[in-house]
Design a protein that fits this description.
By secondary structure, the protein is of the alpha/beta class. The protein has one domain: P-loop containing nucleotide triphosphate hydrolases (Rossmann fold, 3-Layer(aba) Sandwich). The protein has 10 helices and 10 strands. The strands form 2 sheets. Strands 6-7-8-3-9-10 form a 6-stranded mixed β-sheet, sandwiched between helices. It has a 4-stranded antiparallel β-sheet with strand order 2-1-4-5, covered by helices on one side. β1 and β2 form a beta hairpin. The structure holds adenosine-5'-triphosphate and magnesium ion (MG). Adenosine-5'-triphosphate (ATP) binds next to α1.
Length: about 250
C-alpha cells in the first residue's frame, strides 16, 4: 500500500478566527476511496480544498503543518498551483457546466492547456465520458448545449471534465447531494472503476454512501480527525465513542 497523500499536523484558521482544521495528521493510500464523514462544519470541505490549494481563494489566515502529495510539498508558496490543480481535480456538489456544448465542456481544459489536435481531443472526450458513465447517453449529441442535460447528467459531465485532464487524485465534495438515485448510482459505479487508476477522496452525501463505496473512512468533528480506519472497522468496531455516536445517528 502506497501513501499518496501524507498530511502532518495540518492546522488552518480562517480570518474570522474559526479554527477549521486542528492538527490533522493522516496518510491517504493510493488507488482507494477515502471518505470524509462528520457533522456540518467539521472541516471536510476545508480539508479537500487544501489538497488542491483552493483555499488560496478563501479568507484563510494561517495554515501550518505539512501536506505532501507523492512527496511534493503542496503548501509551498512557490508551488505551481495550476500544475497542482491538474493533478488534483475536484468536483463540487452542484454541477456547474460551462455555457458550452457537451463536447466543449470536456475538451475545454485540454484546449486551454494548448492541445489543438482534433483526434487527441476526440479521444480524450470519449474516454472521459465513458469513465463517468455518460457516453452512452450523449454520444449522438455532443454538440448540444450542456445546459440541456439533466442535473445528474451535468454532474457526470463535470466529473468527465475533471477526468479529461488526467489528474491522479480526484476530490469530490458531496457530488451526489443534488442527484436522483439513478445518477447517484452511476457516479458511485464510476468511482469504483476509477479507483483502479486514481486516488479518490470524497465527502459523501451521507454515511450510507460512505459505507457503500469507501475503502477507508475518516471521521471529522469540529476540525479534528477523530478516527481514520478501514470502513468496516469504523462502522462495526469504532474505537472512539464519538465515532460510535455519530455512526449510530445520535447526532448529525
Ligand atoms: N470561506 C470560509 N470563511 C470562513 N470560515 C469558513 C469558510 N469555509 C468554512 N468555514 C468554517 O470552517 C469550518 C469548517 O467548515 P467546512 O465547510 O470545512 O465543514 P464541512 O465539514 O465541509 O461541513 P458540511 O458538512 O456542512 O459541508 C466551519 O466552522 C465553517 O463555518
Ligand atoms: Mg462541506
Amino acid at each position: 500500500m502506497v501513501d499518496k497523500i501524507v498530511v502532518k499536523d495540518l492546522t488552518l484558521s480562517y480570518s474570522d478566527g474559526t479554527e477549521s482544521l486542528d492538527h490533522i495528521s493522516i496518510n491517504i493510500p493510493a488507488n482507494e476511496i477515502t471518505a470524509l464523514i462528520g457533522p456540518s462544519g467539521g472541516g471536510k470541505s476545508t480539508f479537500l480544498r487544501v489538497l488542491n490549494r483552493l483555499n488560496d481563494l478563501a479568507d484563510v489566515a494561517t495554515v501550518t503543518g505539512e501536506v505532501l502529495i507523492d512527496g511534493l510539498n503542496v503548501l509551498d508558496p512557490d508551488l505551481d498551483v495550476i500544475a497542482l490543480r491538474r493533478r488534483v481535480g475536484i468536483v463540487f456538489s452542484r454541477p456547474m457546466p460551462l455555457p458550452l456544448s457537451i463536447y466543449q465542456n470536456v475538451s475545454y481544459g485540454l484546449e486551454v492547456a494548448g492541445e489543438k489536435k482534433r483526434s487527441v481531443l476526440d479521444e480524450a472526450v470519449e474516454r472521459a465520458l465513458r469513465l463517468s458513465e455518460l457516453w452512452d447517453e450523449v454520444n449522438d449529441r455532443l454538440s448540444d448545449p450542456a445546459a440541456a442535460l439533466s442535473g445528474g447528467q451535468q454532474q457526470r459531465l463535470c466529473l468527465a471534465r475533471t477526468l479529461a485532464l488526467q489528474p491522479d487524485i480526484i476530490l469530490l465534495d458531496e457530488p451526489t447531494s443534488a442527484l436522483d438515485p439513478i445518477s447517484t448510482a452511476k457516479i458511485e459505479n464510476s468511482l469504483f472503476e476509477l479507483k483502479k487508476d486514481y486516488t479518490i477522496i470524497i465527502a459523501p452525501h451521507n454515511t450510507q454512501q460512505a459505507g457503500r463505496i469507501a475503502d477507508r473512512v475518516a471521521f471529522f468533528l469540529q476540525g479534528k480527525l477523530i478516527e481514520f480506519n478501514l470502513t468496516d472497522e469504523i462502522y462495526i468496531r469504532p474505537q472512539d465513542e464519538r465515532t460510535q455516536d455519530y455512526i449510530s445517528g445520535k447526532f448529525g
